[in-house]
Each structure stands twice: as structure tokens, then as C-alpha cells.
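Hi there,

I know you've been waiting on this one. I reran it after we fixed the sequence typo, so this is the corrected version. Both the input and the resulting structure follow.
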Amino acid sequence: MSTVSLGEDLGIEASADLKQRLAAHLEDPAVALDGGAVRRVHTAAMQVLCAFFRSRAQLDRRTELVACSDALRDAARLLGLSAPLGLATTEQQTKQPVENAA
């Protein structure tokens, strides 16, 4: 299984680089994304992650987040992307109010 670190910064300016790094692993049989160090997240990076997960699923390839920082988990929850990214949601998480992301 290939492991790809997502790094600390998934801001908009990092999205193109993230897309290139992930594209190199599109055909790998199994990929683990390490999001444990993520501290900053932008919607553009979340779109890249969702597209990567979707493309790999269409190729019948396994993809998972092996570590997920609070920042990454919160961004996924706020954007309604927990399920597409394979993040389990608890009843408590789904009942939390949505913060102002602006």
C-alpha cells in the first residue's frame, strides 16, 4: 500500500500540487492518505481529494485516510464530504451546528 502525506497546508495555493502528487498514485492498487498533519484546509483541496477518491473507486482501487487531523475532519463535516472521503461520522458530529466558514 502506498502512503501519501497530505502535509500541513491544504490551502487553495497548494491544490494544484496536491492534484499532481495524487495523480502519480491513481493506478496504485491501494493508497493510504495521511492527513494527520493537516492544519489548514480550503474547499479546492477538498474537491481534489473527492475527485481522487471517486476516480480510484471507478478503477476499483482502494483508498483510505489513515490519519485525519481535526481541521481536515471538520472541513469534511462542514462540506458534507465525510462519507465520500470514508470518514465515519458519529451521531454527535452530525448534530453539531455548522460554523460560519466565511
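Quick highlight: DSSP finds four helices and five strands in the chain.

Best,
R. S.
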